[in-house]
Amino acid sequence: MSEENRKEPLYVKAYHQLYHMINNNEFSSDKLPSEPELAKQLGISRMTLRQALAFLQDDGLVKNIHGKGNFIVKEPVDKSKDGLEKLSNPVYKAQIETIEEVEMYFSIDLDSAYTRKVLEKKSTAVVSVERWYGAAGKYLAFCFTYLPIDVLEGLGIDLHDEAGFKEVLENTIYQEATHATIEIKKTAAGNMTSQRYSMVGGEACVLLVETIYKEDRVLAHNKFYIPEQFAQLQLTVRK
Known about the structure:
CATH topology of the largest domain: Chorismate lyase
Keywords: DNA-binding, Transcription, Transcription regulation
Pfam families: GntR (PF00392), UTRA (PF07702)
GO biological process, one term: negative regulation of DNA-templated transcription
Structural class: alpha+beta
Domain HTH gntR-type: 8-75
GO molecular function: DNA binding; DNA-binding transcription factor activity
């Protein structure tokens, strides 16, 4: 094989260069320059750049958001941590930003055909809850929850005790549960689900549809909306 044939491909060189630049914080923001700008900066074609970016996406260092561009992932997945297979609040495992606060709003409603479907039974009343997960004055995830009123009654929760109610939704309900199902989807409706606030990047979200069970009884039905630029999902598969 000739020396020329043994040369490192351009896209591999570009990959190593970008890897070095990202790890040395050489970009001024989490969003990378546009592909034409970045290709010009590196002195390569856009096709070569896209090949290099594909490797970085495989490494979990860069995430491409359709219509928005390429973003640096601040904290790649820690493979030692539990993933979505662990029975606990999934938003903290699927969100790469650190959540600092949770705002909660709720109402008590009559059941409907939809709540009977997702809660798998008819209820005397249903509690509808909005939770907004945020940090540094911006909203990073949103959850809409339905749960039967008798679940809270069974746990002895007073709806006037907001802190206690929030603790049930965030933690206690998972301790009471025996199992849960999570369906993973993509949606453009993240910022259309509530008129209260808007999420950063909420136009393109990962949607986690979670149903929490205790034996064959549904305790709660959650829909977590996480903007794609902040979402990173991990499953640990064991033999």
